[in-house]
Design goal:
With 269 residues, the chain is of the alpha+beta class. The chain has one domain: 4-Layer Sandwich (CNF1/YfiH-like putative cysteine hydrolases), CATH 3.60.140.10. The protein contains six helices and 16 strands. The strands form three sheets. It has a seven-stranded mixed beta sheet with strand order 1-2-3-16-8-4-6. Strands 5-7-10-9-11-15 form a six-stranded mixed beta sheet. It binds zinc ion. The site of zinc ion has 6 residues, from loops.
């Protein structure tokens, strides 16, 4: 079963979505590609990263195209200043400073809500997006899990947060691990390897040593394992690697830190 499908809006914006979730009519999800915006050069073209050096006006136009493509014009679109932490923020429309448009709620790396009046957004350029959907209690979580967040098991902590706030149970969760840096491209040295090894006794199943004394780690596989160890069974993984697919994605590693940002977006309907 393929987990993600590439869509094209008539305004040119291309984004991935999850067909079985689209069909559920309960939630909308998207992971943007770099296609369909107005930015140029290294930000070509749908750059959504406000903290990049791209022209502000182009980023604004990219946002308006995104909101049109995802039908978010009247819905507040909420993100965080991501810091590779394990901080999780709950979002409620009644607590937001504005009732529509794009806003940033401070620092953190995961968002949860049971409010259909808001859309959650995280930014990515290799770090893994994790979409969590509790179809029984109608709640969602969206996670930015880079290697630090993965070491801190932020996806599992987001599940615990949803359990505490919304009574989410393992058997009611559906999880999609989205496009991000693949096993093929995520290479690290001894020091980072040691941090993983300290946390995960089973790491060797998700890592291999390369000829040049480095290691490759399967971040998506490791996130899935962490969630499975909590008893969550319904987990899909996107096979897309953001480093390999230059045609579709920005990549922090491939582009040596100077690149645009994709967005993961999720909301209840
Ligand atoms: Zn790759």
């Amino acid at each position: 079963m393929s987990s993600f499908l590439l869509n094209r809006h008539k305004n040119g914006v291309r984004f991935l979505s999850i067909p079985q979730w689209d069909n559920s009519k309960l939630i909308k999800t998207a992971f943007t590609t770099r296609i369909g915006g107005v930015s140029s050069g290294k930000y070509e073209s749908l750059n959504l990263g406000e903290r990049t050096e791209d022209c502000k006006r182009n980023i604004e136009i990219n946002y308006s195209k995104l909101c049109e493509a995802l039908e978010l014009e009247d819905i507040p679109l909420v993100s965080l200043k991501q810091t590779h932490s394990d901080k999780i923020v709950e979002v409620k429309k009644e607590n937001l400073p504005n009732k529509k448009g794009y806003m940033n709620l401070g620092e953190g790396d995961a968002l949860v809500t049971d409010d259909p009046g808001v859309a959650l957004m995280t930014f990515h350029a290799d770090c893994i997006p994790v979409f969590i959907f509790d179809s029984k209690n109608k709640a969602i979580g969206l996670v930015h899990s880079g290697w630090k967040g993965t070491v801190e098991s932020i996806s599992v902590k987001t599940f615990y947060k949803m359990q505490a706030l919304y009574k989410s149970r393992q058997q009611d969760l559906q999880i999609c691990i989205g496009p991000g840096i693949g096993y093929c491209c995520f290479e690290i040295g001894e020091d980072v390897y040691a941090l993983f090894k300290e946390k995960f006794f089973y790491l060797e199943k998700y890592a291999k040593k390369t000829s040049n004394e480095k290691y490759h780690i399967d971040l998506k596989g490791l996130i899935k394992r962490q969630l499975e160890d909590e008893g969550i069974k319904n987990i899909l993984i996107s096979q897309e690697c953001t480093v390999c697919r230059k045609d579709l994605f920005f990549s922090h590693r491939r582009d040596k830190g100077s690149t645009g940002r994709m967005a993961a977006v999720m909301r209840l309907i």
